[in-house]
Amino acid sequence: MESQNSQFEYFVRELIDAGGEKGKERIKPTESQGKAVIKKCQGRCQVGRESYDENPHIFVIHHINGDANDTITDNLVLLCANCSAAVHGEANRILRDRKLGGNPQIMDYKHALSSLEELRIKKFIKKCAYCNGTGRGDYGLVCVICHGKGKITVKSEERCAYCNGTGRGDYGLVCVICHGTGFEDI
Question: Where are the domains positioned within the chain?
Answer without folding.
Answer: 4-119, 122-186
